[in-house]
UniProtKB/TrEMBL annotation:
Role, per record: Catalyzes the last two sequential reactions in the de novo biosynthetic pathway for UDP-N-acetylglucosamine (UDP-GlcNAc). The C-terminal domain catalyzes the transfer of acetyl group from acetyl coenzyme A to glucosamine-1-phosphate (GlcN-1-P) to produce N-acetylglucosamine-1-phosphate (GlcNAc-1-P), which is converted into UDP-GlcNAc by the transfer of uridine 5-monophosphate (from uridine 5-triphosphate), a reaction catalyzed by the N-terminal domain.
Binding site for UDP-N-acetyl-alpha-D-glucosamine: 8-11, 22, 72, 77-78, 139, 154, 169, 227, 332, 350, 365, 376
Protein's organism: Ligilactobacillus equi DSM 15833 = JCM 10991
Protein's name according to its UniProt entry: Bifunctional protein GlmU
Ranges for domain Nucleotidyl transferase: 5-218
Superkingdom of source: Bacteria
Gene name per UniProt: glmU
Binding note for cofactor: Binds 1 Mg(2+) ion per subunit.
């Protein structure tokens, strides 16, 4: 049987008090509606339609061609929203899943179980329910004396007795597709909100003598909807715990899981150790046997196997096998750190490639450069790449030596086995086996120490130390 899905993502979400549309708020690095679509996709759907309204263009830019779209120009309720998909799905035979774009915690397994239960019961409609001791704000599942679902009542329309019911509507349904759209045309808006409620189709099906079922999920936490920043934070905590547990079960050591922040799409190899305060963001990929120490941040970065990152910030960079960095260093976009390379403390690398076993120990900037293998770059070296208008590239050959305190002003080429004397400002190419030295000649001025205020300060110190 064909499987379809409709994702409701048209609401603005005024309680978020944000310029960003509600379903686009991120949970662990991914917009909420993307989480929903990702889990739905794992069920091998034949078609997915996302209902858009506020922020339609932004939602479509986020989800791309993974789904079709239908516009709900005026928000008149969930029933009205689903009806907008009729032109795409209305004439199809199959099952249709309805989910909300602000419920990022649902899993593919729960959706699969709902499909299976719906089919096993031969139902025209099945609602996914959950039990909670605090049902305020949720629609209530009203059953008759033998447990059959009679209707779903929204919070604002519930009687005092109905409001006491603790089985709630999660907002997820499975329907016979054609029957759904036929029933939606019969839904009325005579309720407190003046809206067309999707749950009202349940009573319509009941009146027609059709089977309406309810599948109660085991984990209420999955059903958490996000309507404000407080709920967003709670959802993020739940998602983070789920992500961290998955990595630990796959052989990753998290020293303090509650203080480790890993986005949903991050990949980590076995036997990697991650200390507290680490943030792994975006599409970061980490190999096996890596070690990432406290307070490091990696954004869209690749670490090959056996890489060590010590309290550093890496973005859109790659560190190859056996390399290390830190503490307190920064890899900016397009930094390519070669096998066995050592990046020490307070080093910044941007749009530069460092070859195998090259060492950049400390207090250095390497930008717009290609460095070969087995190069030593001394402390305080600056690759001067910007003339105020354009960036310029520098090449340094294998086995070369850059002395401390040097300025390498691009564009310049330093050959293999070349030497830059400490304190030089290099503006011209250096050939192989040559040394470039560019600094003022030292002159010692006899007795000049005594001419300066420091002489008196020194004399005072000597007197004090006697």
């Amino acid at each position: 049987m064909k499987k379809f899905a409709v994702i409701l993502a048209a609401g603005k979400g005024t309680r978020m008090k944000s310029k960003l549309y509600k379903v686009l708020h991120p949970v662990c690095g991914k917009p909420m509606v993307d989480h929903v679509l990702t889990q739905i996709e794992k069920n091998d759907m034949d078609e997915v339609v996302t209902i858009v309204g506020h922020g339609a263009q932004k939602v479509e830019e986020t989800l791309g061609n993974r789904t079709k779209y239908a516009l709900q120009a005026e928000q008149l309720g969930t029933g009205h929203a689903v009806l907008q998909a009729e032109d795409i799905l209305g004439d199809q035979d199959g099952m249709t899943l309805i989910a909300c774009g602000d419920t990022p915690l649902f899993t593919a397994q729960t959706f699969q179980e709902l499909f299976q239960y719906h089919q096993s019961k031969g139902a025209v409609a099945t609602v996914l329910t959950a039990h909670t001791p605090n049902p305020f704000g949720y629609g209530r599942i009203i059953r008759n004396e033998i447990g059959i679902v009679e209707k779903i009542v929204e919070q604002k329309d519930a009687t005092p007795e109905e409001a006491e019911v603790q089985e709630i509507n999660t907002g997820v349904y499975c329907f016979d597709n054609k029957a759904l759209f036929e029933a939606l045309h019969q839904v009325k808006n005579d309720n407190a909100q003046g809206e067309y409620y999707l749950p009202d189709v349940m009573e319509i099906f009941q009146s027609q003598g059709k089977v309406v079922a309810a599948y109660q999920m085991k984990n209420f936490e999955e059903s958490m909807g996000v309507n404000d920043r407080v709920a967003l934070a709670k959802a993020s905590q739940v998602m983070q715990a789920r992500i961290n547990q998955s990595h630990m079960q796959n052989g990753v050591t998290l020293v303090n899981p509650t203080a480790t922040y890993i986005d949903a799409d991050v990949q980590i190899g076995a036997d990697t150790v991650i200390e507290a305060g680490v943030s792994l963001k975006g599409k970061t990929v980490i190999g096996e046997d890596c070690y990432i120490t406290a307070n490091s941040t990696l954004v869209d970065t690749v670490l090959e196997n056996q890489v060590t990152v010590t309290s550093s910030y890496l973005e859109n960079a790659i560190m190859r096998q056996g390399s290390n960095i830190g503490p307190y260093s920064h890899l900016r976009p397009q930094a390519d750190i070669g096998e066995g390379v050592h990046i020490g403390n307070f080093v910044e690398v941007k749009k530069a490639t460092l070859g195998k076993n090259t060492k950049v120990g400390h207090l250095t900037y390497v930008g717009d450069a290609t460095l070969g293998q087995d190069i030593n770059v001394g402390c305080g070296t600056v690759f001067v790449n910007y003339d105020g208008v354009n960036k310029h590239h520098t090449n340094v050959g294998d086995y070369s030596f850059i002395g401390s305190g040097s300025n390498i002003i691009g564009p310049v080429n330093i050959a293999d086995h070349a030497y830059v004397a400490a304190g030089s400002t290099i503006t011209d190419d250096i050939d192989a086996h040559d040394m470039g030295i560019a600094r003022g000649r030292q002159i010692n001025k006899k007795g000049y120490f005594d001419r300066y205020p420091v002489a008196q300060a020194a004399k005072d110190a000597e007197t004090k130390n006697e």
